[in-house]
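Table 4 source record.
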Amino acid sequence: MVAGVLLGLTAVFLDFGPFVLDWIKPWGTIFINMLKLIAVPLVLVSLIDGISNLTDMSKLSRIGGKTIGFYLISTVLAITIGLILVNSIKPGEFLSEEKRQELGVKYASEAQMTMDDASEVKESGPLQVIVDIVPENFFFAAQNNRNMLQIIFFAILFGIALIMTPPDKAAPVKAFFSGINGVILRIVDIIMKFAPYGVFALLAGLIVDLGGDADIFIALGVYAITVLIGLAIMVFAFYPVLLSLFTKVKYRKFFKGIFPAQMLAFSTSSSAATLPVTMKRVEKNLGVSEEVTSFVLPLGATINMDGTSIHQAVSAVFIAQAFGQDLTLADQLTIVLTATLSSIGAAAVPSAGLIMLVIVLTAIGVDPAGLALIIALDRPLDMCRTVVNITGDASVATLVAHTEGELYDVPDEEEVMKEEKLSSSQA
């Protein structure tokens, strides 16, 4: 990130910008293309694999139904919070009008397509959005990232049908998708190893494009603050209120209990890598039964991405604002729907939210090349949003356990130590 900015500024002041644009920036474009390349197979395979692991429909009927319901509600609320913040603060408007127009010309190659889509939506019926989710032809839908909602619909349908299929016939199919999912995640690893070079190339090209203007740094700073405010609202307001209203778990005890998992999530940026610690802490420190923990938390690592959802909402609108594109109410609703469904298919690995953001951007007709604006800040923001993701998982696990009568009182470790010291002193 620093090297890209320095190269871009040097190119502007020493007047060798064309060299950067011709020989450096294309590597950033390659990185963006690789992210777009993996988006469809990642969502398709991750969703089918995750849903098929629910094993049977009976689990979906009670604990599974509650878990998925709570996760979807919290995700929609998270996206809504992100949209309210970004539409109120408007970080993209910290760029000058001239720069927004310049970015629109340089990056927003699909701007005209967006206007065409908006006019079509205006002329179509109120249920057209729902109609468009169901594809006429799966292979046709898979040809374009803009049809991601159709891919998600097919994946959910396929996963449910796989659960309902007799185990002896379903086993080879589940094993196939499980294996493919592992391969896809390895491809993601390979792509993300290229990320530092992609960030370097994208930022160098972006600085040259902007002529070294300071506006972009101010806008990025406001954008990052907007995301962090949204994440803070979830961790320090939404989850505590949820727990205090529906359970007897104290705010201080909850955060103290999962703090080690939060720190691991912050350092690894991976819900999957943090999962063993999260399960141990929720069971041992919060008193959630093993049955609930073993079902709710692994499912949450797959489908519950509150932090990622906030980031996607803020990022999508920020990039649109930077490009000078006005998002309609239909576009905003599309962000809610797409970000919710794509978060279900998001892999629990570092920077998976970046890949999911490609889906959201294409769904609202914003050029995914706009990722160049925010990609440099993705890693630190990814660390923060992963903390929110696992905190949401732990909150829902506690809530489900309470409704099932499987939340047990666990004494505070400090109180136990004080009582032991008191007993020993008395003895």
